[in-house]
Design goal:
307 residues; Jelly Rolls; 13 strands
């Protein structure tokens, strides 16, 4: 399916996780995170409240997605008589424990972590999220195990753990994104758009063959829409114009090939739709800040392939 193709090439970064443990009758006030924040309920029931003060129920294996900058509160079930507030999202390495109330037997235990999810350098998959989402993932038996594996990787403090953690989080996100269209107005618009066969055909065409000389005319024809209506709908859903999307997909493919393949730069340029090496190099440097050759050498150094 189209969503699987999109997610197969994501760049996912996961900041150090924390566990939030709330005793009965306690509230934990959380600051607005610097990026998208996930809360996954490991134990217990409770609620989460955002700036709108709307209470959204939390149950085991609920996954709450908090937009960047949105302050919110976590609460246990029943009357709240005590409160702890924290001023910053944890950033220390490893797994932190944030405890609200007497330690021992918390009523509500939540895994909390900031993530960054992108396709290419600038296509942020959560760019249009404006309000808190809570999705029930209790029908996915492997979810608790995935979060426990993320914890285990982050405890190791080794560089390879970042890649493993990103791969594990990608699996979690796949389950999340598959369920979000059923959330209606709370879902990200671009995700809803993939259910629209017109835009779905366009995204599939771009992902299947980014090197094709796509134009606004060819893409709008694929969608069976007028140029102006297609361009407006696509930009509203994806946060960038259609040809801008094509460009970022091409650059992401180039990044992947420079990192892992032995193809020459000329061959890579051709495979991502550039007729000349110089044009490709100019576009790539503008996109990443590095020339293709320098980017490839740096990738080898990071992988330990060069002295």
């Amino acid at each position: 399916m189209i969503l699987d193709k999109l997610l197969s090439s994501l760049a996912v970064k996961v900041a150090p996780f924390a566990t939030c443990e709330l005793a009965s009758g306690w509230r934990l006030g959380m600051p607005g995170p610097p990026g998208v924040l996930l809360h996954f309920v490991l134990k217990g029931h409770g609620t989460i409240k955002g700036p709108d003060n709307e209470a959204r129920e939390l149950a085991p294996q609920s996954l709450a997605v908090i937009p960047a900058g949105v302050k919110h509160d976590l609460e246990t079930v029943g009357p709240i008589s005590n409160e702890r507030r924290i001023n910053a999202v944890p950033s220390d390495p490893g797994i932190l424990r944030i405890v609200a109330g007497p330690p021992g037997n918390p009523e509500l235990v939540i895994a909390c972590g900031v993530i960054d999810v992108r396709y290419g350098q600038a296509l942020d998959l959560f760019h249009s999220l404006r309000q808190i989402l809570v999705v029930d993932l209790s029908t996915v038996p492997k979810m608790p195990d995935l979060f426990q594996e993320i914890f285990a990787e982050q405890r190791q403090h080794i560089s390879v753990s970042d890649a493993m953690t990103g791969a594990l989080m990608t699996q979690c996100l796949l389950h999340l994104f598959r369920r979000l269209p059923s959330e209606g107005d709370r879902a990200m618009p671009w995700l809803i758009s993939l259910q629209d066969p017109r835009l779905g055909r366009v995204i599939e065409a771009i992902l299947d063959d980014p090197a094709y000389p796509h134009t606004l005319e060819t893409l709008s024809a694929t969608a069976a829409m007028s140029r102006s209506a297609f361009a407006e709908l696509f930009s509203n859903m994806f946060g960038r114009p259609p040809i801008g999307f094509v460009h970022h997909i091409r650059m992401q493919r180039a990044i992947e090939m420079l990192s892992v393949s032995k193809l020459s730069i000329d061959e890579i340029a051709d495979q991502v739709g550039f007729s000349s090496r110089s044009h490709f190099a100019q576009a790539f440097k503008k996109h990443t800040g590095a020339a293709p050759h320098a980017f490839r050498e740096h990738s080898k150094e990071r992988a330990g392939l060069l002295p």
